[in-house]
Write the structure tokens for this entry.
Amino acid sequence: MLSASMAAMGLTGCGSDNVDGTKTAITVNDESITLGQANFMLRYQQATMYNYYSKMYSMYGMQMPSEMYDKEGDDGKTTGETFKEQSLDTIEKELLMRQHAEEYGISLTDEEKQQAKEAAQAFADKNGDDVMKKLHATVEDIQDALELYVIQTKIYDPIIADVDTEVSDEEAKQTSISYITVSTAGTEADFMEYGYARVSTKEQNEQRQIVALEEFGLDRKQIFTDKQSGKDFERTNYRKLVRRLKEQYPYY
């Protein structure tokens, strides 16, 4: 469940030296976590996302751009700022899960606590004092973060037990990100490429999907987005995209 191999994740370049990692970063009800722990959790999520996108880019023979987090979205926020906000929201939810764990019959075993302790110490030993100082985190901070992750994993099934998780065939066909190349072989027209990104609710942010599409060479005007459920195809900008394709390519 926990492994010392997580210590190999690159978390260097983690921040300023003028930060007091013992100060409170987030408080949910009566429970707080320190700046050091919050920073570790942010960097852990960042490393996980970076590994995911690196694999995706490598599938297409591309290298993930170093300036990815500096790209600005339609809301005026950079991808880095959006990621930070979403990550902090995730941490708050993880704290809430721990606070309500007993209601679902969830708790950590002594073995799991020991695993978290050993993995946290292995991370500190592997990365050294320099990284720990840049994270402003202690071994105890990391141990607590890992325990939160374990609770999140264990509580998932009980939480969704009463939720309708059946997916229809139509819903299964939906994707949240699409990359479309329309072939114009045999015509005088140039290739035109479009992208489509979707999130299910207005509260969700589609910026990461847009950035991923832009890295494939698409301009923002070539990307259509919707903040609607994927239960059917009756989505405003999805329909606009289909109309655009039919107008430009009657054989589409």
Q: What stands out?
A: Strands lie at 24-28, 31-34, 177-182, 192-199, 223-227. The mean pLDDT is 78. The radius of gyration is 22 Å. The longest strand covers residues 192-199.
